[in-house]
Amino acid sequence: MMHIYIKLLNMNYQKIYNQLIERAVVLKQERIQMRKNGFYFETHHIVPVCMGGEGSLKDISHDNLVQLTAREHFICHRLLTKIYPKNRKLASAFWRMCTQKSKIQNRYIPTSREYEEARLHCKSIPISDETRLKMSTKQKGRVVSEKTKQKLRIANLGKKQSEESKQKKSQKLKGKVPWNKGITYNVDQKKPMSKLNTLVGKSRVPFSTETKRKMSVAKQGSVPWNKGIARPKLRCIYCDKEGGDGNMQRWHFDNCKYKP
């Protein structure tokens, strides 16, 4: 059995990669049969998809696909980052192999040095404008389920921003010009906006002169209904703080940061 060591220093990376792939091609049918009998293997593209490689992971008999052990698969992706050091997609694939876990995948566990190497290498390659545009387009129109929203609420409940975070946000917003400052709208653009504002209640039908007069007469000499009425004080059961109804309901009780 050929032994491939993880330490890769001053080696011919392409040669080692070819040796691994050639061995996997020879054992391809044997490993496919072993996989059907319950043995664990991972499917690997000989020519990466990001470099024009073909073949669906479901079609394991494809010429561009081979079956590798978890350790061989990890080594192959590490070798690819060495062969093509400026390819961000290959660097990201290697980084994901170090971090992603799955119940159905018995992944090779990297050492701390391999983990650091994958992370630093991935961060060293900048994201292209084309990739950023694809990421932005993919996120547009994405609907977040109520279950996910609830998880986010629970995760953020009771979190308090540090002074350093507040200062960073403040510095970031200083001198920032609103996106719509200086933009003028023509008549055709204003019509649908006006209609929308009417629907959400921001723009109402103006009161008639008679209605305004009646409202004025009704207000003369009247006393606000809540004048002189003391607002009740509430005390939080978690932090023992006392305050008015509005703020206490918002920041305390179920939303209190001291709630266990």
How does this model look, in words?
The radius of gyration is 32 Å and the shape is elongated. It is mostly helical and 260 residues long. Among the domains are: 13-128, no CATH class; 230-260, no CATH class. The relative contact order is 0.06. The two termini are 56 Å apart. A hairpin with a 6-residue loop joins strand 3 (233-235) and strand 4 (242-244). The protein has helices at residues 13-26, 28-36, 70-83, 88-99, 112-124, 129-139, 146-156, 163-173, 187-199, 209-219, 245-251, and strands spanning 42-45, 65-68, 233-235, 242-244. Helices cover 48% and strands 5% of the residues. The strands form 2 sheets. A two-stranded antiparallel ribbon has the order 1-2. Strands 3-4 form a two-stranded antiparallel ribbon. The protein has 11 helices and 4 strands.
Write the SSE topology.
Elements: H1 13-26, H2 28-36, E1 42-45, E2 65-68, H3 70-83, H4 88-99, H5 112-124, H6 129-139, H7 146-156, H8 163-173, H9 187-199, H10 209-219, E3 233-235, E4 242-244, H11 245-251
Antiparallel strand pairs: 1-2, 3-4
Helix pairs in contact: 1-3, 3-4, 4-5
